[in-house]
Specification:
It is a multi-pass membrane protein. It is found in: Membrane. Keywords: Membrane, Transmembrane, Transmembrane helix. This is DoxX. InterPro entries: DoxX. The chain is mostly helical and 151 residues long. The protein has one domain (25-141). 70% of the residues lie in helices and 3% in strands. The chain contains five helices and two strands; from the N terminus they run αββαααα. Strands 1-2 form a two-stranded antiparallel sheet. A hairpin with a 2-residue loop joins β1 and β2 (43-44). The longest helix is centred in the N-terminal third of the chain and has 24 residues, at 12-35. It is elongated and about 65 Å long. The N and C termini lie far apart (45 Å).
Length: 151
C-alpha cells in the first residue's frame, strides 16, 4: 500500500492570481464588446452605434416574438453598459456588484439570442456567464481594486 502525499490547499496568492486573471479577462472582453458596437467600416462613431443597435434590435424583433420597443431599448443601452461594466471590472470598482450586473446583462443578451434561436451566440454567452460565476466564487480574494466591496 503506497502512501500518497496529502493534497495541499492552494495558497491565498494563487486564489488572488486566479481571480485577478478572471477579472482582467472579463473586464477586457466586456469593455471591447461595448466599444465594437461603435464600429463600422473601421470608424468608431455614435452614428455607427445607433445604426448598428437599431439593426440589431430590428433583426431580433423580426425573428422573434419580442416587440421593437423592447429590443430597441435594450440594444441602445447595451454598448454603454458593456463599456461601463468592463471599465469597472478592470479597475475593480465594487467588483462583486459589477460581476452580478455584468452577468445579468449577459443573461439578458442571451435571452434575446435564445428567442431568435442563435445557438452559437448563446453558447458563447453561457461561457461568459460561467466565468462570471467562477469569478463570484473567488471575489473574496480580490486584492487589487480601486473601490473594494465590503466583506
Amino acid at each position: 500500500m503506497s502512501e500518497s502525499p496529502a493534497p495541499t490547499a492552494p495558497r491565498v496568492n494563487e486564489y488572488t492570481a486566479a481571480f485577478l486573471l478572471l477579472r482582467l479577462f472579463l473586464g477586457l472582453r466586456t469593455l471591447l464588446a461595448g466599444v465594437e458596437k461603435f464600429e463600422s467600416g473601421g470608424k468608431y462613431t455614435f452614428e455607427n452605434y445607433y445604426a448598428n443597435m437599431t439593426r440589431m434590435a430590428s433583426g431580433i424583433t423580426g425573428a422573434s416574438f419580442m416587440p421593437l420597443w423592447m429590443t430597441k431599448n435594450f440594444a441602445h443601452s447595451l454598448g454603454y453598459l458593456l463599456i461601463i461594466f468592463g471599465a469597472a471590472l478592470l479597475l475593480g470598482v465594487k467588483t462583486r456588484c459589477t460581476l452580478v450586473l455584468t452577468g445579468l446583462l449577459y443573461v439578458g443578451l442571451s435571452f434575446g439570442l435564445m428567442a431568435v434561436q442563435e445557438s452559437e451566440g448563446v453558447a458563447w454567452l453561457a461561457i461568459h456567464v460561467g466565468l462570471i460565476a467562477g469569478a463570484l466564487v473567488l471575489v473574496r480574494h480580490n486584492r487589487f481594486s480601486v473601490w473594494a466591496d465590503k466583506s
